[in-house]
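Morning F.,

Quick status update on the modeling queue. The single chain you submitted on Monday has been processed. Sequence for confirmation:
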Amino acid sequence: MHDDTVHHAGRQMAPVVADTWERARPAARLLRVSFEETPPVTTLDQGRDLAYEPRQPLGVKGVGGNGRVGVSAALANAVHHVTGRRIRKLPITIEDLV
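C-alpha cells below.
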C-alpha cells in the first residue's frame, strides 16, 4: 500500500475497517482492482534494473532489518515468564537472574 505496484502475490490492496467480519466483507467487495500485465523477468540482469527497493520508516529495509528491534524485548518477556522477574536493562546477564 506504499505505492500502486504489486510486487508479490498475496499483497494487501486496501484496508477495510469494520467492527465485524460480516460488515467488512461487503465493503471489501466494493474494491475494484485492475492489473497491467508485464513481461516476466527471466535473467538476473533484467531483475537488477527492475529491483524493488522497499521504503520503510526509519530507513529500515524489509522485515529482516526491523525484526531485530523486538528480539531483546521478546527475550526479556521470556525471562519474566520463566523466572517471574522483570529485567528492564540490556543485556540480560546471569547475574541479573541470580
